Amino acid sequence: MSDVMQTILNHKSVRSFSADPLSKKQVQELVTAAQSASTSSFLQAYSIIGVSDPLVKKELSTYAGSQDYVVKNGHFFVFCADFYRHKEMAQNLRADISESIQGTEALLIGTIDASLAAQNLAIAAESMGLGICYIGGLRNNLAGVSASLGIPAHVLPLFGIAVGYPETVHEKKPRLPFASVYHENHYNVDKGTLNAHLEEYDRTIQSYYVNRTENTRNASWTQQTTDKLRVPRRAYMKDFIKQKGWAQH
Amino acid sequence: MSDVMQTILNHKSVRSFSADPLSKKQVQELVTAAQSASTSSFLQAYSIIGVSDPLVKKELSTYAGSQDYVVKNGHFFVFCADFYRHKEMAQNLRADISESIQGTEALLIGTIDASLAAQNLAIAAESMGLGICYIGGLRNNLAGVSASLGIPAHVLPLFGIAVGYPETVHEKKPRLPFASVYHENHYNVDKGTLNAHLEEYDRTIQSYYVNRTENTRNASWTQQTTDKLRVPRRAYMKDFIKQKGWAQH
Known about the structure:
Two copies of one chain form a homodimer. Chain A has helices spanning 3-9, 24-35, 54-63, 68-71, 84-92, 98-101, 104-127, 142-149, 178-181, 191-211, 221-230, 237-243; strands spanning 46-51, 75-82, 131-135, 155-164, 182-184. Chain A is of the alpha+beta class. A four-stranded antiparallel sheet of chain A has the order 1-2-4-3, sandwiched between helices. The radius of gyration of chain A is 20 Å and the shape is globular. β1 (46-51) of chain A pairs parallel with β5 (182-184) of chain B. Chains A, B: Pfam families: Nitroreductase. Chains A, B: Keywords: Flavoprotein, FMN, NADP, Oxidoreductase.
């Protein structure tokens, strides 16, 4: 198996890093890797904010639910959908692009662009022997995150990635069965097939949770996932996004 | 430089493939790579539809603007944000998760999850010597795409990736300067700095377009990008998404 496939397949989120900072060179290599990803219509509608200041990390950690690894890591990256620079350059050219950049399509473009770049950064980091953890918890309080990072309108922070030298690495978590994620030519809506896959996966996940080295528990994926989704979260999102110039129409 | 970094940094979209199909084993390896990406709260809120049927490819190509490479490739993948399986399993458990999965936050989760998975697939494909091209053009007509692929409510097709054996490979397109995409600790809103970066980048891109081997032209990034954004596109998106059970609130 190639080094690339090995890196991709070995991915495990790391939630415990040493405090050793990444070098400027490492940060530059990681961001350059991120920038090499595809981007919708070559718009490059995203930005990356690297956080090294411990006070800023501390603030972000509070928003994200006080996770230690948002503070103690080698570097923290915040990925944002971004049409700020497009707005500026359109103003320079006396063009009106507000209809485009304030549409729901622009929200998709920015979110997809930022995510493709982020995953390149994640793979690049893991290939350097670093560990990573995505921090969606930043979306608990995007007003706070935006204030901490001085983020203007038309820029939407989406998630963070903590990167650093791993102190503890856990086992790889098994994913849904191939056949329940992959459909051929036609989406398979058959409930019998879906339920058979979910039962198979619940057995896999139960065995993983019982056998893993730390934090063992007895839980099925369908039950724990349904429990998570039973409680609506981040209900402020639509209003916040609109207020910041996104998805007006 | 490691093979992983080399693969990531060498990315170029390929828009001309041989008609040789990927093997079932290749498709399985690529999807397994996709599934290894991080996923928000372990929700795995995405699906992948592989398209091998030439008639379905032809339909998708029509929606995407009649691009040949949507038809002639080794395999075509459509990435979807997906809460269909969550809805089914909640019904089995007699739980109501509709508030969660119909929120704007769920749209972000599904879009981010699908994009992280997609980028893993893209890198994996390129590591196998295959070429890839993202096809955001599917969003020109998501009603058509959904009908062609039999996509139910709570599943949103976002983009495709054409994968195959490259017939022509172009030069790598230079990206925005590092310093205009990467900010440290604080978003830099300074217009003087931004404009200096954009001027530098316009010179880089002009030189790239003039010197590339095919399809040379004289264009600046700020001008061509502003021209693209001057014309609002896919204005139906908000209504379509709502109608399919997304971003109701």
